[in-house]
Design brief:
single chain; 325 residues; three-stranded antiparallel β-sheet; two-stranded antiparallel sheet; 11 helices; 7 strands; 61% helix
Length: 325
Amino acid sequence: MLNKIAFSIGPIDVHWYGIILGTAALVGLLLAIQEGKRFGIVPDFFMDLLLIGVPSAIVGARLYYVAFQWSDYKNNLVEIFMIWHGGIAIYGALIGAIIGGYFYFRAKGYPFWRIVDICAPGLIVGQMIGRWGNFINQEAHGGPVEESFLRDTLHLPNFIVNQMNIEGVFYQPTFLYESLWNLAGLLLLFWLRRRPFLRAGELFFSYFIWYSIGRFFIEGLRTDSLDFTGPTWLASLMNALWSPMTLVFEPGVMTYGGNIRISQLLAVLIIIAAIIIIIVRRKKGYASAHYADPIISSKAPAANVKVQNEELDTKGAEYDSNRTV
């Protein structure tokens, strides 16, 4: 088993989990900065966004988890603040980061949809890297499997197989499945953002659609899912949608005794909502701007706006000359 502590500074232990999450945030930031340069957005804008987005994501992740596990906290409210005891959720982190980002974008005068498009690859690469923190902590795994499945069927290297051995039982490396799915999603977003048909906001929605598809199927393998007891017809629908996975995998046990996994239901709702929003925005003309169009802050000094417009109009003309509809 890998040591969760990377190194110690006196009495302070520095955990690999924190290092991995920090690396994930840094790589996501660098991607956003690099793409922002194409639109004349200074790096400081994204660095400040990170300072707002990370705390907002942590608060959102914790509140989301506590809301769905309120019975564990209602008699011990102090425990809500003890986040180091575990209990965060990625969808809550996304909600928190989006809310924090929205107010930051408004303060800076940038259109929300244009900036979240730039940030979308950074979000998915952050999740791709961050899942390896779960690997180090031996958490967010799937149900029990045979060692031969990991070694002979999946052909995983020893360091992954050994880390999936928890107290003598081997488990599904769902962290790896999600990390690889996010890697494929990152490549898809890189390809999409250079397509002439892409409108403002659609790269962000594409990120949510891709991530939610993978999360729906991978979530069904996990044994730590937040769940609830819902109507039988809804549980049957979720099971039917997940049923193709049974050709290869066994579903994970629902820890809390419900019949519907919250993340699976939310994933389905997000996919449907994102597709509907893309269609409606196009039909109603709300998505008239293309991804490659100039991005100008409404609060930028007039002289800077004029210079930016001249530079970006030149780039836009070059882009339009090569664009096919």
